[in-house]
Amino acid sequence: MLLRRESHGHFHVNYEEYRNHPEWFEDEYLMPIPIFDELLSLLSRHLSKQDTNMRKSIGACEKLAVTLQYLASGTSYKRLQNKYRISKKTLVKLIKETCRIVWKVLAPKEMAAPNKESWKRISEGFKDNANFPHCLGALDGKHIRIQCPRNSGSLYFNYKKYNSIVLLALVDSNCLFTVIDIGSYGRENDSTIFQSSILGQKLNKEALDLPEEEELVFGGPKMPYVIVADEAFGIHRNLMRPYPGRCLPTDKKIFNYRLSRARRYVECVFGQITSKFRIFHNTINLQPDSSILVVKVACVLHNFIKRRALNATDGEKEDISNQQNMTPILQRTRNSGLQIRNLFKDYFNTLGAVPWQNDQIV
User: Fold this and answer.
1) Mind listing the pLDDT tens digit for each residue in 227-251?
2) Which GO terms describe its cellular component (predicted)?
3) Is the Cβ–Cβ distance between 330 and 222 less than 8 Å?
4) What are the tens digits of pLDDT across the range 171-194?
5) Distances from the Cα of 133 to the Cαs of 123, 128, 324, 362, in angstroms?
6) How far apart, in whole angstroms, are the C-alpha atoms of residue 37 and residue 19?
7) At residue 118, what are phi and psi to the nearest 5 degrees?
8) Pairing between strand 135-145 and 164-171?
């Protein structure tokens, strides 16, 4: 069966047929044909190998197709072997090698370290799309189900009663990953993971190259740029979380609503990668290092595909300014996270109010 790969293998039999049916191609290989061709052109030099006297090498296009099929379906190596007529041993090596190359080639461009200019662009996106100014991104963690490694005890066993590694992600308002941290034990909580991550350490050391503090409105206090997160994270002058409790006054409920509108983007991204990369629907039967690599590649491919699919035209933005008094937020500006949160709360209840916010907190 394996020797008949070029005559009976799924890639050799169906690839050209899929290219004649774009809908089928995208379902099979995760992306439209033009994006696939662009990706292949970037990776081809790294994936190609020379033929030998013993056998003909597997082509770059076939390697990429098999890897994308593995990520898209989450099927086992055994089933991929029967489908593509490539031995299981070769598939394991091929997919791992391709994933490493994808990450190495795409990560520097698709997930480059943010600087002041890119942080400002992200902030403008949240201001336009989520009505939350000075927002640098939405932060949250996602448990990725994995097979329990040998001799690991309960390290990977999480509160949801399965073994996992954690994907901690910061995303922008275009549903693109800005920063990711992958591989923490499932038993750890999001706040602990964040504090030990490079992002959290740089935030605490003020080494993230964030934009300088600026006024939200003319004549108001200078406000820092912040990340929005849920109640699992600790508050910081550059990290906002909701007010705790149920029976809150109206102004605090409005702040929580406005923060949740900005934070929803990270939940949307997690839903999108799970829907597209169906390998996340089941347990990943790989060792933790290989599982981390698979998650990294899924994230960078998501950015690669999403960035090219985004509509270049921006819709008309609603003018939400009004003439209410800004006096409540005219306070001192070198404040703790709690005081910064109160300043945002006052802003969202005065000049930063949107017409529908009171209807959403009833």
Assistant:
1) 999 998 989 989 999 999 888 899 9
2) nucleus
3) no
4) 999 999 999 999 899 999 988 999
5) 6, 8, 18, 24
6) 11
7) -70, -35
8) antiparallel
Specify which residues 180 forms β-bridges with: 169
Q: Residue type for 303, please?
A: N
**Cα–Cα distance between 90 and 136 in angstroms, integer?**
43
Compute the distance between CA of residue 340 and CA of residue 349 in angstroms, rounded to an integer.
14
Q: Note every long-range contact of 44-52, with CB atoms under 8 Å and residues 24 or more positions apart, other chains counting.
A: 46/101, 46/104, 46/105, 47/98, 47/101
What is the identity of the amino acid at 178? Answer: T
**CA distance linking residue 334 with residue 206, whole number of Å:** 14
131: left (phi over 0), alpha (psi -120 to 50) or beta: left
Residues in the chain: 362
Q: Model pTM?
A: 0.88
Contacts of 44 (CB under 8 A, 6+ apart): 60, 61
Question: Residue holding tokens 């039999």?
Answer: 13
Q: How far apart are the first and last CA of the chain?
A: 65
Please give, one letter per residue, the 3-state secondary structure of 276-306. Answer: HCHHHHCCECCCHHHHHHHHHHHHHHHHHHH
Q: Tokens 């990429």 sit at which residue?
A: 64
